Every structure is written in structure tokens, then in C-alpha cells.
Amino acid sequence: MTAYWLVKSEPDAFSWEQQVANRVEPWTGVRNYGARNNLKAMKKGDLVFFYHSNIGREIVGVVRVAREHYPDPTAESGDWAAVDMEAVGPMPTPVTLAQMKADPALEGFGLIRLSRLSVVPVSADHWAHICHLGGWKK
């Protein structure tokens, strides 16, 4: 069964365009235990919203987990995890944070409720609603 997630990236550090150009990219550098645990829970084939944080503040694309968690090669020490993400496609109409915050159907959505966490689970209902808002049909 496919699970759904959202990952955040600052576009000036790593953008959707870079993800697409690289096709498959390791998701590294997560240094929060809650976000790390979410990375460890991801399974190959899970679908993930790619969210531009800081600049843009919008869901701009969808990626798929291509490789389950492994030790983060960028970590100097500690039990940090990475996963490989594969670009699936752009969100036809990016879904903004302001739009999501104003939508009663997204009450309790992890991006809003756990705003500082860089990797959050997404319920099937929230996934479907955001896909509808953004015109995602795949």
C-alpha cells in the first residue's frame, strides 16, 4: 500500500528543477529526529510532494521513493538517514502554503501543524485534495 509524504527543500539550496535534471537524487542532510524517523518509515514506491520552503512556499512537484533509507553519507556522526527520490512530475498548478492554510479540508495537515518539520506524512485524504487543487492526475 502506497503511503504519502511531503518533503521540504529551499529552492536556493536544492530546487525542483535540480531534482528533475538529476532524475534520482539522494535526500540527505535531515538533522531532526522526527523528520529522520519519517525518512526511515518511507517505503520504495511511496509518493511524496516536493515543497519549496522559504522561497515560494508551495508544492511544486511529486517524487517517488526510489530507494529506502540508508545511512546518510553527509552525516559526520549519528544515526541519520537518507532516501533516494525519483522525479515523477511537476504539479500542474503549484499549491501555495497560503492556499492550504485557508482550506478547511486541510485541517490537521502536517505541513501546517508541524511547520518546522522537513519531512511529514500526508493522509490519503489530504493527498487527494491537494492533488485536486494542483491539477495532479497521475
Q: Structural class given helices, strands, pairing?
A: alpha+beta
* Number of DSSP-assigned strands: 6
Helical amount: 25-40%
Q: What number of structural domains do the residues give?
A: 1
CATH topology: ph1033 like fold
- CATH top level class name: Alpha Beta
Strand content: 35-45%
Q: What is the rounded Rg?
A: 14 Å
Structural account:
The protein contains five helices and six strands; from the N terminus they run βαβαβββααβα. 38% of the residues are buried. The longest helix has 11 residues, at 124-134. A hairpin with a 5-residue loop joins β3 and β4. The chain has 138 residues and is an alpha+beta fold. The model has no long low-confidence stretch (mean pLDDT 96). It has one domain: Roll (ph1033 like fold). The chain has a six-stranded mixed β-sheet.
Question: How are the secondary structure elements laid out?
Answer:
Layout lengths: L3 E6 L6 H7 L1 E4 L5 H9 L5 E6 L5 E14 L9 E16 H6 L7 H4 L5 E4 L1 H11 L4
Parallel strand pairs: 1-3
Antiparallel strand pairs: 1-6, 2-5, 3-4, 4-5
Question: What would you say about this model in short?
Answer:
The chain has helices at 16-22, 33-41, 97-102, 110-113, 124-134; strands spanning 4-9, 24-27, 47-52, 58-71, 81-96, 119-122. With 138 residues, it is of the alpha+beta class.
